[in-house]
Specification:
- By secondary structure, the protein is mainly α.
- Helices cover about 80% and strands about 0% of the residues.
- The protein is flat, with a radius of gyration of 20 Å.
Length: about 210
Amino acid sequence: ALLAWLAARERPTRRRLLAYVVLATLAVCTKEQCAFVLIPVTLQLVVSVLRSGSLSRGFGDLARAGGAGLLLFALLNDLFWAPELFVGRLRWWESEMQTYRTIMGGAASVGRLADDTVYGFWFAGGPVLGACVVLALVLLLLRPARGGWFLLLPAVVYPLLLGWAIGFMQPRYTFPMVLLRGLLLAHQLGRGRAQLAAGPAARRALP
């Protein structure tokens, strides 16, 4: 879903938008926590589509893709023939989250959520990836012209939304952050490689 998002963000055609929406819907139906990382990602994509050309065409493409996603979500969750099952699953999910909160002594404070998020990221990504991501963040700050902020934003918003919604953070919940920051690392490496490749050509073009 994240790779489809990048493709649609680069060139928002109807096919790419539809591919992203279908994969995002499947991700949410597979693991509900995915919704919290896909919310900021989808909002970014909507803004990108509306800025890329005609507003009427952009709204039309988004409406078609969104309608397809809602239809798929309804089919996968029995909303047409047994909506009470979906409501029951939501209630079960909330009861499970409440059980976790009770075990952990209630909803965590902001400081504890931040600490658990940092620990969870290092636990899920490992020290090597964590160190590489820190290096990518340093390069992003030192050379902001390289871009990549669009990848950093959802990685920051995701734990805030999830922590606010469920009241705690577990290491396994930080895997979407690992994916996003891995994409940030790949983006920085790609831009750096492109700049190195362009250096000799630029020097040869000098009189």
